[in-house]
């Protein structure tokens, strides 16, 4: 690779000039057969990198090559390792190179090579993919995600969901608001990290399962029902009719659909969520009360907004966890916790002189 | 140029690789659960032992091997390192030894045969440098050949160094009062070593005889896929 590729950065990073001012102006690199120009992304904190010199940063982090303690480790050898590794990577920047690939082609001891490799990787000079962090099972697709970095931010893709509040990838569960087309991760939802004017009740919980099966919107459910009416048991045709769902998804969802009256009551879903949330409030309060022996009266007939108040970190955490786990699970868990706590209290006070504890336990127990 | 007999013996030196860098050649050949992993590389014995596990984990991750390999690789490396270190305290006699080094290796599609002389007393010698120059001169394109050549040289030097430790020990045992010890050294240090005195006698020439040229000429062959497959099959059969 004799030609020096021009180096470009993704937005937010600064320009890197691979040649020093004294070097002759670079020859215009011949473009390879593909029409795309050769570009390599380098993070801004690595702008010191240059093929023609060694920077202080390198001396600091890899002192073994610069302290003349070993005759085989000197700056020349360091540059040989460094330049070979970087050039090897830049031959195909969309592919992640491994240490083993590289050390087989370099003459020298593997310990030093590994340290140079790790250094270059940490500083993003190799294996740097300026894209959104993808989920583990999508590692093979880093190439395609690098290409679609710009487009994935606000799109509701079936496999990736980004939070509009903190711009991280949502895992396990997220909260979607169809009205304003927003997606929030559990943490942002609990903190109320959304625009003014949007209330928490506008959101519904969406589970993100391992196979990234997306939620079913009303439209899709309607399509599904239509298709079943038309095609009956022919799931292949049903799946074709419903956009974006596989046969298996269709069957699974259909089985899970509620019947009859429950189905009619679906509009009040969002209110249900609210009610369940605030009934959680009470058990959660009970939990924190028995812990803190505080006297917060169960007059929390308030809406969801108190969850946004993170001043009580325990409450915030409990809220976050219950939002993440979902309504039913959180409810059951809270009830189980309360029951156990009262059991423990009973047992502790039986046959002991601590009548006060029982008194307190009984008082704070909302049952 | 006549060399006095006494200069052919030297005070014993502490064992080390007779090269500029004291690097150990490590060879791995591990088979577990039907998968075979073969590798060869150079290790710096002054690296901390923690590096062994780090390297093993890294290699297993990069090559996507099953995790049982990690402990096996680490153990194998550790054993070879310990063996190397066990020689370190001991003496070796190197005398004035010029030893022949033979290269006969295959790396992917490149076959290399070569035969040259190496000065064991030159502690500044550098097999890696030799390998780099060799690849440049012979126009070898496969980047994996260089390290393999360096490794082959290093391995042979290591063998010879170990032998000279063993022979030093023997000599010590038999040395009591024997004056012929010096001659014993020069003859014991490997039957392959060239006797410089004989070589540089006044009536002989340092220029190699023409009929011997072919022995010392490097041969680099590029093999076709079928030949590679055939060779690999034969190697596997031989090692099992």
UniProtKB/TrEMBL annotation, chain A:
Protein name: SWI/SNF complex subunit SWI3B
Organism phylogeny: Eukaryota, Viridiplantae, Streptophyta, Embryophyta, Tracheophyta
Organism: Citrus sinensis (Sweet orange)
UniProtKB/TrEMBL annotation, chain B:
Stored InterPro entries: SNF5
Pfam families: SNF5
Name the record gives this protein: Bushy growth protein
Location of this chain's protein in the cell: Nucleus
Biological process annotations from GO: chromatin remodeling
Main location: nucleus
The organism of origin for this protein: Citrus x changshan-huyou
Keywords, in A-Z order: Nucleus, Transcription, Transcription regulation
Segment forming the signal sequence: none
PANTHER family, per database record: SNF5
Gene Ontology annotations for the cellular component aspect, listed alphabetically: nuclear chromosome
Protein family (similarity comment): Belongs to the SNF5 family.
Domain of life of the source: Eukaryota
């Amino acid at each position: 690779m004799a030609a020096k590729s021009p180096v470009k950065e993704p937005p937010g990073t600064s320009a890197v000039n691979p040649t020093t001012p004294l070097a002759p102006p670079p020859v215009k690199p011949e473009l390879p057969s593909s029409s795309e120009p050769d570009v390599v992304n380098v993070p801004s904190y690595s702008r010191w990198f240059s093929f023609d010199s060694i920077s202080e940063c390198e001396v600091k982090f890899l002192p073994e090559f610069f302290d003349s303690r070993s005759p085989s480790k000197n700056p020349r050898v360091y540059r040989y390792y460094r330049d070979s590794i970087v050039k090897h990577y830049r031959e195909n920047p969309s592919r992640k190179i491994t240490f083993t690939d590289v050390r087989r082609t370099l003459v020298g001891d593997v310990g030093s090579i590994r340290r140079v490799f790790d250094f270059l990787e940490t500083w993003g000079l190799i294996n740097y993919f300026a894209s959104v962090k993808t989920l583990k099972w999508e590692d093979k697709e880093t190439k395609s995600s690098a290409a679609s970095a710009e487009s994935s931010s606000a799109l509701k893709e079936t496999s990736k969901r980004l939070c509009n509040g903190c711009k991280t990838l949502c895992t396990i569960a997220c909260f979607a608001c169809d009205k304003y087309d927003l997606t929030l991760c559990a943490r942002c939802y609990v903190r109320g990290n959304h625009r003014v004017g949007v209330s928490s009740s506008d959101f519904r919980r969406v589970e993100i399962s391992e196979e990234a099966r997306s939620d079913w919107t009303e439209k899709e459910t309607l399509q599904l029902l239509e298709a079943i009416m038309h095609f009956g048991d022919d799931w292949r045709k049903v799946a074709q009719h419903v956009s974006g769902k596989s046969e298996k998804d269709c069957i699974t969802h259909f089985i899970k659909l509620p019947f009859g009256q429950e189905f009619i009551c679906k509009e009040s879903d969002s209110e249900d969520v609210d009610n369940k949330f605030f009934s959680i409030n009470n058990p959660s309060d009970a939990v924190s009360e028995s812990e803190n022996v505080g006297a917060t009266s169960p007059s929390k007939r308030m809406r969801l907004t108190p969850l946004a108040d993170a001043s009580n970190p325990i409450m915030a955490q409990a809220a976050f966890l219950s939002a993440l786990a979902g309504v039913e699970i959180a409810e059951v868990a809270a009830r189980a916790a309360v029951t156990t706590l009262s059991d423990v209290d009973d047992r502790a006070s039986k046959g002991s002189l601590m009548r006060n504890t029982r008194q307190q336990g009984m008082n704070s127990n909302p049952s | 140029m006549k060399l006095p007999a006494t200069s052919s013996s030297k005070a014993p030196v502490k064992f080390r690789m007779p090269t500029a860098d004291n690097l150990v050649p490590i060879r791995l050949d591990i088979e577990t659960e039907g998968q075979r992993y073969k590798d060869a590389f150079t290790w710096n014995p002054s690296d901390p032992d923690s590096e062994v596990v780090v390297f093993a984990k890294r290699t297993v991750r990069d090559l996507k091997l099953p995790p049982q390999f990690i402990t096996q690789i680490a153990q194998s490396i550790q054993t070879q390192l310990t063996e190397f270190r066990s020689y370190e305290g001991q003496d070796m006699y190197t005398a004035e030894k010029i030893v022949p080094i033979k290269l006969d290796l295959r790396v992917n599609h490149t076959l290399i045969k070569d035969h040259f002389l190496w000065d064991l007393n030159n502690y500044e010698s550098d097999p890696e440098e030799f390998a780099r120059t060799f690849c440049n001169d012979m126009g070898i394109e496969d980047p994996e050949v260089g390290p393999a050549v360096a490794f082959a040289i290093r391995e042979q030097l290591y063998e010879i160094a170990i032998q000279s430790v063993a022979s030093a020990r023997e000599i010590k045992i038999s040395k009591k009062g024997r004056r012929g010890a010096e001659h014993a050294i020069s003859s014991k240090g490997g039957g392959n070593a060239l006797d410089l005195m004989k070589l540089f006698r006044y009536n002989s020439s340092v220029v190699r005889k023409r009929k011997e040229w072919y022995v010392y000429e490097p041969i680099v062959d590029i093999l076709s896929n079928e030949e590679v497959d055939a060779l690999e099959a034969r190697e596997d059969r031989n090692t099992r």
